[in-house]
């Protein structure tokens, strides 16, 4: 039931994203045109001749051309192409009004074959507009509206900042497979005419290739007329088909879960059954979202400024679900090895088991951290705005490194300390330690801290840097064997040999004694009031030694109490040379 709710929520979320992007950010698209340009290229370069290079003298403010747009000629004066923003506005508005010939005057066709016709130039304008409408989000606020391509920047004194003129301006970008495609406007000058702005020849040259990738789908071209009814500016069939694809994706996810469980049951092995339960939901999610992404991207061409973000977001969900899938596999494998291949780590005699479990725990967390980082990096790479952020951060790498080092010093130090602990093994899971005068067991070693379970079932959270840099006691690092001492104070008149004999008898009769160290009782100190005795006992583990220590203390106190009614316990003595309150003094005072 929980899995169904998860998949249903994911489907609803995807519907919400798509519908909100379509209806909240509506934009005209040529995908509903009755006639679309062919997906074939305008001209085959192998069958066409190219004119000589049109670039003339170099000038920092513009590109000087020897020719301009053979099939169309010089743009009429009625068209405003004086600034980058004006040129792009002319191109888009003309295309929206289906005046593609007027829009073609904003293109630099100098890299096209000299056999290109006027109709082919018009088709190029229509194709470029379709691609821009589908995949390019234009930042109009950042597009210069000055002939020199500069952006007006004013200081606190309200004075304009002068700068060098620009002859090339980027207004968008996309990619084809692994190649980035940049959309540019360029300032050109032809003969004695004034300089003006056109969409660059390189951008126009890439139009056919872009159109083949991002052009109208089969459904765009062959859907019946009745399905072209508009909801805002979007044809009715697109949101309807999107919802149907969501339903199919959800059902596909359910089928994947059933198939995985059925295949697992056919093997009739507990490990495969357990693995199928952990991998069913991630596999279903990855399959359903991947199917939805592929079909949406190939069957339905949404347009608008945010369409590219929607596709990138869907791809990010696919990558996240696949990352989750691999994390489940990794987690299951580590847990299976820990539970079935490693012995009991709670026993203090299991040195190898505790060591292997520590290695496994640290490796599991490092691998999980690595998978998450790789998955996150792939997801972030799908958003071009975040790529720009990354480039700008690399440009200021010195400052970013200092800030990151200061902010994450503690966290990174603890992570590195965790790797040091795995290599040098000052503490392992299951070890008995004394940290800050607190006795306990190492219960777990995480990314940045160690969990110590104390004798009263509390948990100490110890940063791993503390474990590496500070001193602490590990009672089982080489051997669990432990020696404890009992200290007690007795009167000077006690027979120490009698106490020594009794202590030896008690130790030898104790089941907890491991016979590794002989019982020993010594006089370690003399004070003005008593003798200080130390009795030493040993046991196989620190826990057993502590229990033996407490039992022997109790038995020795009981034995001393029985010796001549306890007169050998330490006591204070006071000697009075002359009594102050005798009978004679009282009689004298009465007279």
Automatic annotation (TrEMBL):
GO cellular component: plasma membrane
InterPro entries in the record: LSM_dom_sf (IPR010920), MscS_archaea/bacteria_type (IPR045275), MscS_beta-dom_sf (IPR023408), MscS_channel_2nd (IPR006685), MscS_channel_C_sf (IPR011066)
Signal peptide (from-to): 1-24
Cited Gene3D superfamilies: 1.10.287.1260, 2.30.30.60, 3.30.70.100
Keyword Signal carried by entry: yes
Membrane topology: Multi-pass membrane protein
UniProt source species: Salegentibacter salinarum
Mechanosensitive ion channel MscS domain mapped to chain residues: 411-476
Pfam families per record: MS_channel_2nd
Keyword annotations from UniProtKB, A to Z: Cell membrane, Membrane, Signal, Transmembrane, Transmembrane helix
Record-annotated membrane-spanning stretches: 236-259, 279-296, 308-327, 362-383, 389-408
Name of the protein described by the UniProt record: Mechanosensitive ion channel protein
Record localization: Cell membrane
Coiled-coil spans in chain: none
One MF annotation (Gene Ontology) recorded for this entry: mechanosensitive monoatomic ion channel activity
């Amino acid at each position: 039931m929980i899995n169904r709710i998860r998949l249903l929520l994911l489907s609803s979320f995807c519907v919400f994203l798509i519908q909100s992007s379509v209806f909240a950010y509506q934009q005209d698209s040529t995908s509903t045109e009755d006639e679309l340009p062919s997906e074939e290229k305008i001209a085959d370069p192998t069958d066409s001749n190219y004119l000589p290079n049109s670039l003339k003298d170099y000038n920092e403010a513009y590109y000087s051309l020897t020719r301009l747009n053979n099939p169309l000629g010089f743009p009429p004066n009625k068209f405003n192409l004086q600034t980058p923003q004006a040129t792009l506005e002319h191109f888009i508005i003309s295309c929206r009004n289906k005046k593609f010939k007027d829009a073609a005057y904003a293109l630099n066709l100098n890299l096209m074959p000299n056999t290109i016709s006027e109709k082919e130039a018009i088709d190029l304008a229509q194709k470029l507009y379709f691609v821009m409408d589908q995949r390019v989000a234009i930042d109009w606020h950042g597009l210069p509206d000055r002939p020199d391509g500069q952006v007006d920047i004013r200081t606190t004194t309200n004075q304009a900042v002068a700068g060098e003129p620009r002859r090339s301006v980027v207004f968008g970008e996309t990619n084809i497979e692994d190649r980035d495609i940049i959309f540019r406007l360029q300032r050109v000058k032809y003969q004695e005419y004034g300089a003006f702005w056109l969409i660059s020849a390189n951008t126009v040259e890439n139009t056919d290739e872009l159109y083949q990738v991002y052009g109208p789908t089969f459904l765009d071209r062959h859907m019946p007329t009745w399905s072209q009814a508009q909801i805002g500016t979007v044809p009715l069939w697109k949101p309807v088909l999107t919802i149907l694809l969501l339903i199919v994706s959800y059902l596909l996810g359910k089928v994947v879960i059933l198939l995985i469980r059925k295949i697992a049951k056919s093997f009739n092995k507990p490990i495969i059954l357990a693995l199928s339960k952990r991998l069913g939901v991630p596999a279903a999610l990855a399959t359903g979202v991947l199917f939805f992404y592929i079909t949406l991207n190939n069957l339905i061409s949404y347009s608008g400024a945010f369409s590219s973000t929607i596709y990138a977001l869907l791809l990010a969900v696919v990558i996240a679900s696949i990352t989750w899938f691999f994390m489940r596999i990794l987690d299951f494998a580590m847990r299976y090895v820990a539970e079935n291949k490693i012995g009991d780590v709670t026993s203090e005699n299991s040195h190898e088991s505790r060591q292997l479990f520590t290695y496994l725990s640290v490796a599991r967390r490092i691998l999980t951290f690595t998978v998450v980082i790789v998955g996150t990096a792939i997801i972030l790479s799908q958003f071009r705005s975040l790529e720009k952020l990354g480039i700008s951060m690399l440009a200021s790498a010195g400052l970013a490194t200092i800030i990151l080092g200061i902010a994450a010093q503690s966290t990174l130090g603890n992570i590195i300390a965790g790797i040091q602990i795995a290599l040098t093994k000052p503490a392992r899971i299951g070890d008995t330690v004394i940290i800050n005068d607190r006795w306990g067991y190492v219960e777990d070693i995480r990314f940045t801290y160690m969990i110590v379970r104390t004798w009263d079932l509390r948990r100490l959270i110890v940063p791993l840097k503390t474990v590496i840099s500070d001193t602490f006691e590990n009672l089982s690092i080489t051997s669990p064997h432990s020696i404890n001492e009992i200290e007690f104070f007795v009167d000077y008149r006690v027979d120490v040999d009698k106490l020594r004999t009794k202590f030896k008898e008690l130790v030898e009769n104790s089941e907890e004694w491991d016979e590794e160290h002989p019982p020993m009782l010594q006089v370690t100190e003399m004070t003005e009031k008593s003798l200080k005795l130390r009795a030493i006992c040993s046991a196989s583990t620190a826990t057993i030694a502590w229990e033996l220590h407490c039992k022997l203390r109790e038995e020795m106190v009981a034995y001393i109490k029985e010796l001549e009614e306890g007169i050998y316990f330490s006591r204070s003595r006071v000697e009075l040379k002359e009594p102050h309150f005798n009978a004679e003094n009282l009689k004298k005072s009465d007279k």
